[in-house]
Write a structure and sequence with these properties.
Strand content: 15-25%
Distance between the termini: 25 Å
Largest sheet: 3 strands, mixed
Number of domains: 1
Structural class: alpha+beta
Shape: globular
CATH superfamily: DnaA, N-terminal domain
CATH class: Alpha Beta
Radius of gyration: 12 Å
Length: about 80
């Protein structure tokens, strides 16, 4: 779904290594490759990610937090 919303080139560029971490109430946390990707997605595509997540999870997503993957646990 994100491939269709973003377009193949943008999807490949921004979502490489993306990992959905957790859903806490109506806030989704997603790990992305670096700070630049996190900032770019947050600025221009956050609504697309929320819409895709709502469609897949079948529940409301009020916000998506994009976090560089180096903040993820080494055990995850």
């Amino acid at each position: 779904m994100l491939n269709n919303l973003l377009g193949a080139w943008e999807y490949d560029r921004l979502c490489l290594g993306m990992k959905v971490a957790e859903m806490n109430e109506d806030i989704l946390c997603v790990f992305v490759s670096n700070e630049r990707c996190a900032a770019e997605i947050e600025a221009g595509h956050a609504d697309d990610f929320a819409a895709a997540a709502e469609y897949i999870l079948k529940r409301p997503v009020r916000r998506v937090n994009f976090v560089p993957s180096y903040f993820s646990s080494p055990l995850s």
